[in-house]
Amino acid sequence: MTIFSIPQAALDAQATATHPTTSVWVSANAGSGKTHVLSERVIRLLLNGTPPARILCLTYTKAAAAVMQSRIFRTLSSWSELDDHQLQTILSRLENKPVNAQKLTYARQLFARALETPGGLKIQTIHAFCEALLHQFSLEANIAGHFELLDDISRKKLLQQARCQLLIHDDAQSLLKQLFKIISEETFNQLLHEATQKQHEFSDFLSFILYENGEEQLRQLFNLAVDETHQRLLEKIKQTALLSPHAMKYYQTNGNSKAKNIIADFLQLVSTSDEENIITLVSNIYLTTTGKPRDFSRLFSNKSDEIWPFVQKEIEKKQNQLSTLLEKYQCVQLVTLNMAVFQLCSLYLKIYADLKKANGLLDFDDLIERTLHLLQRRGASQWVQYKLDHGIDHILLDEAQDTNPAQWQIIQLLAKEFFTGDSQRTNTRTIFAVGDEKQSIYSFQGAEPENFAKNGRMIQKQIQHVNEKFEKIQLHYSFRSTADVLKSVDLVFETPENYKGLSADNAKTVHEPIRVNSPGDVIVWDVISKQTSTLPDDWHSTVDHLDTPEVRLADKIATTIADWLQKGEMLPAKGRLLRASDIMILVRKRDQFVPALSRALKLRNIPVAGADRLQLTSHISVQDLMALARFVLHPKDDLSLACVLKSPLFALSEEALYQLAAQRTGSLWQSLNAHASSHDYFKEIFENLSKYRALVDQIPVFEFYSHILNNDKGRQKILARLGPESNEVLDAFMDYTLTIQKTGLPGLQAFLETLSKNEPEIKRELDQNHEEVRIMTVHAAKGLEASVVFLVDSGSAIWNSHYAPHFFKLPLNGKQAFIWRPNAEFKTKPFEKALSHLKESAEEEYRRLLYVGMTRAEDRLIICGYSQKREVPNTWLHLVKNALKPYAVPTKGPADDIAAWRYSITPSTSFPIDQKILGEASQEFPPLPAFFHHKIPAESALPKILKPSVTNFATDTDSEIELFSAQKILNVSPILEAKNTNKAFSIEYGNLIHKLLQYLPDCPPEKRQDYAQQYLNIKASHWDDTKKNNALHDIWAILDNPHLKLLFSDSSRAEVSLMGIVKIRGKEQMISGRIDRLCITQDCILFADFKTGTPPEDETAITQNYWSQMALYRKMLQTIYPEKTIQAFLIYSQGAKIFTLLPKKLDTLLDEIAL
Questions:
Q1: 614-763 has which CATH code?
Q2: Where is the UvrD-like helicase ATP-binding domain positioned along the sequence (predicted)?
Q3: Which ranges in the chain are annotated with CATH 1.10.486.10?
Q4: Does 29 belong to an annotated binding site?
Q5: Is the CATH number 3.40.710.10 carried by domain 8-77+121-142+365-475?
Q6: Residue 35 labeled ligand binder
Q7: Read out DSSP for 300-359?
Q8: Based on CB atoms within 10 Å of each CB, which residue in 151, 443, 475, 563 is the most buried?
Q9: pTM, two decimal places
């Protein structure tokens, strides 16, 4: 195993990036340690004294957040176990300066501080952050406080409802008639899908285009003059198309046999007035089927006379004129159709939004849009920023290149208060972002790679404007890949045509390897092309078993891997044998190659994780369970019953099924019934199926399938036949049954219909720790790595206009417009320009995908591919082959007819082979115990939790807030404050007194007066002197009361939480609450609860809820301390009114509490 050292330049760059008082913008190469830098920066922020709750770290995925949090906690927890010398060495190296004993003590406390922070360290995705923010400020955001996130199932259901409502809506009928003349149902569904995908951008555009003279603006976009109306253009097209009399006569006289149809069209054009006929005839006459001008010279037999040049000139002139007129005619049509589509989409999106609102649901796009609206909303935004100003000091952003424009706006608004000079906080506040434009591959989610550099410049300008520290850093050093892999990447992206669009600078890549002496290589296999072949005579062979290029390549890869694992291939850089988990196979898309490769690997007994995504209904085990459902619902469904009998659940042989089916006179079910009387095996199957038919009407869907898979060992049978990967599929299927059972219609029929219609997809996280070969797309592999990577080029076209969106983004008067193109026949200049831009962007992202795929490899990279008959230029394989072949040497390929080249710059080193090959010895496991196959009996539920506290006085969840920090306590949103000023003041008054009663007893008696006055001057500076004096009077009246002396003594405690189970009227009840003040002496217990409302005249006027609350607290304390006398006090802060509650009355009240 090779050992490498880290250059000082790399360490210096990381130290600068993690400095806790400097805002940093990091551009990092693949494998340069972005996660390490982020984690270390968080640790240094904590070490610098930043409370954990004041750090916000936004990651791109939940998995990345979990990895980062795990790293941080692992580091912090290890510090608590080190001795002083070890910890001092680590901290000195981390902070690049000596540390004292106080710092060592503080560092050891960080793990506990991070764990005990309310809500934990905020390391989360931006969607999770937005969700939490909207729950916190639901009123200001104008959404339901109990909102839930839409899952895929509910979303599909709502969209289907919205579509159905749109189709029957009165306002949509004329629009639908207009559109369905030119589009199909499939195009209509795609149109609605795209509108939903861009719902918030699209809604903003619709509100502008439908209500701000939008039709005129669209006409300007297509360069239509005022007089170029639909009817005038049609008349002009017809008149222009007609030939002059002498030209027409010449045409009729000299036209050859091919001209007859054109002459007939001319004659028909003269007499017709139908719009569709006119356009069709003109197009047939002057244009070819591809839309190009027709060559009329081919239609004349005699072109040598003196008249032909004049006729030719007239025809060419008309062709040029008609080309312009027909395009303008298309543009007029587009304006009309687009206005209809805009109205239809506006209605559809409103229906969808109303359905979400009625059900209290938000989707992921809503989280971003609502948060952005909240932070921009006048009045409410200042309140939100004020509250956030108390809670966020440092923002860290991971994978910044994949952040879309709306998310960037949120981050900029969050960071705006950092650099305005208006913040309530005086400490240094920073923003940190790390990203790599070369790895921006999520354009379908709205990511724009150029925004990374653009936002970096904007943040830099804001920070430098307030004279704060800012650094831009490049992380060129790579810790992941060998020098061979990195150099190959640089060679591929060395030429301008290859590095175009890779970054904002449009510069070639530069990678500096840390693993300079680690041996590695890059191997290029020549493309496997389609060969001319005949279909096999064996009709049993499936299509994917034919000798297609993808099947051949899958076979070669599987054979190569099998050879490695069997012969003990070494990983020289790691000094050990290659394992299955070291191998990752990357594809551009999930086509037929993926199942072919998975099958080829399994045939060679190579463990494979399967695809990273799987459509649930495409898996054979789920299809068998669906067939079982169809049979029990419809016993005469012979095909479904046959599928069930052949499935692992019953494993009927071909011969036995033939015996049942071949000579039957009735249904297959009837035949099984008849054979059951004479064959024990058929009898057992018949009895089980009869039992399932009876069960389906008695229990819910989840319990039905649970009985089959668990009680009847169906899962065990399926796994035995289909392998362990089916386990995850069955888990996902059972989860789906439970979800549908909760949200959908009851019954197996409704479930089956929903499952068939929705076709849910499993997104699987492939675990690198499992001994399995991983197959995934390059998109899914982002952030992952493997010792050996196969990068497979499918040879398909980089760009295809068939995949172009229906709505094109076009600039319109300084705004972004979405213009609909019904089909490819509408070839206007704005669309052609937009298509050209889309093609260029797709090619740039294609090259960025290649960069991501190549940089996943640690030691060995193999680039291979297949193609059909027509090869596509500039594919991954072509780019790599052309760049590396001049520097590579020929090597043995996977087959004699497949050439290969090897590129390597690091000398290989021989290592002794370890004779102990992992996984070579098969492990035998004992049989599962019997109880494993039986359902565990349900445990009795815990008692319902009672929370007796009826008022929550908590004003700040931050446990580290200082009593005299320069912050005002403001607890009521301005949205509420304007409507209920008196109530707001009453709450604020009570909270202030509550805080003082909590903290003053801990202060020296001689300083309490000064502290209280200072506190009110800071926290209640907006109060007049009368209010402050009243507050001080009430505080001293309570603290100096002789009956409460023990409650505010040194032995007392504030804010004491209690939780436990007590018996009330013979019934166990769980109680959870918090006592404002508690004192426990040797003989007695005193406790008090503070109230802010208007105090009652006497004890009889105290509200029943307060009596019940105190009675439950007393009962809880009595359960814990049965030998002590317990006295309860109710203290009203206004007027300092104190009630001593009699124990006898509190005990009596327990029998009256309604549980």
A1: 1.10.486.10
A2: 7-482
A3: 614-763
A4: yes
A5: no
A6: yes
A7: BS---SSSHHHHHHHHHHHHHHHHHHHHHHHHHHHHHHHHHHHHHHHHHHHHHHHHHHHT
A8: 475
A9: 0.77
